[in-house]
Design brief:
The chain is of the alpha/beta class and about 325 residues long. Helix content is about 45%, strand content about 15%. The chain has helices spanning about 25-40, 55-60, 70-75, 110-120, 135-145, 155-180, 185-195, 205-215, 215-230, 245-255, 270-280, 285, 290-305; strands at about 15-20, 45-50, 85, 90-95, 125-130, 150-155, 230-235, 260-270. The longest helix is centred in the middle third of the chain and has 24 residues, at about 155-180. The radius of gyration is 19 Å and the shape is globular. Bound molecules: adenosine-5'-triphosphate and magnesium ion. Adenosine-5'-triphosphate (ATP) binds near residues 25, 26, 29 and 269.
Amino acid sequence: METRLAKQRSPAPEIWAIGGGKGGTGKSFLISSIGNYLALRGKKIVLIDADFGGANLHTFLGVAKPRVSLTDFLEKKVPLNDLVVESGIENMGLLIGAINSLGPDDMKYTQKLKLFRHIRQLDADYILLDLGAGAHFNTLDTFLLADKKIIVVLPEITAIENSYYFLKNAFYRQLLKTLGAHGFKELIQDAWRNREAYNITSLSQLIDYLRSVSGTLEDMVNRELAGFGAHIILNRVTTGQEVVIGRSVKSICKKYFSVDAKYVGYVEHDPIIPRCINKRQPFMQACPGTRCAREIEKVAENLLHGKDMYTRV
Ligand SMILES: Nc1ncnc2c1ncn2[C@@H]1O[C@H](COP(=O)(O)OP(=O)(O)OP(=O)(O)O)[C@@H](O)[C@H]1O
Ligand SMILES: [Mg+2]
């Protein structure tokens, strides 16, 4: 049964978004499982399937595809809180991206801003956004909306490359958006488009260049960098050696993008996971206490506390 969640609570919810560029890395599985864990801990969660056009998050929870979606908000102006349906898990509501023809290209700029404003006003402690694959600008903007930006990486080179590409594009877009609002858009675009002439080969060098232009710009860039903070989850790990790949991804984020990332943990590969999904059983409910369930709990705790898995307490 679809229910309306209670109106207005404070303080404002914290928004987490999970992305990473490559398809099939486990974004939907991980965010639904993290949401499930947080809900079990008594946090009020709204899980949003922001895979505009490819909504399948309900499958991970074992519930039927909701009859209402963001399309009703965008096209029929139904309040967002009214579109949050039961997820089958206590304390967790579900809001799905789109059930009609809406694809990422179909959302207008003004619709997007309105949607983002209303997402921030949803009644929840945590709003978890599951993004689709790729680095479409609407996907990047939804990622940038989040207070905690999470990327899922697999221990394989193509997935790692995709995550760098995704993060690089996201941070570049963030710079354009915030510094652009202060009249620096053309300066950034010019330097990046003509990077050979400027001797710029990486985003990190673009950042250094912008910092050298003026003290004001340096302060603004530093503020953006400090606020960006990506969180890395390594999924489908099969050996102990692979665990350290998360740490390498983190170092590379620093070296090439100047972005401080936290490696919040890894989850092993376990064939029981697709079996659970195929049986339409939420993994954290069906397999509590398994190694993967415990690893997901650890990841969720590290995210809650903003902690790197290698940080000693
Ligand atoms: N740790 C894991 N061990 C084994 N299988 C996994 C693991 N994590 C995810 N999977 C499987 O990988 C498949 C893809 O997962 P999922 O749909 O969550 O990826 P995604 O990143 O959301 O994909 P898309 O980009 O298409 O939305 C699922 O069938 C899931 O069962
Ligand atoms: Mg997905």
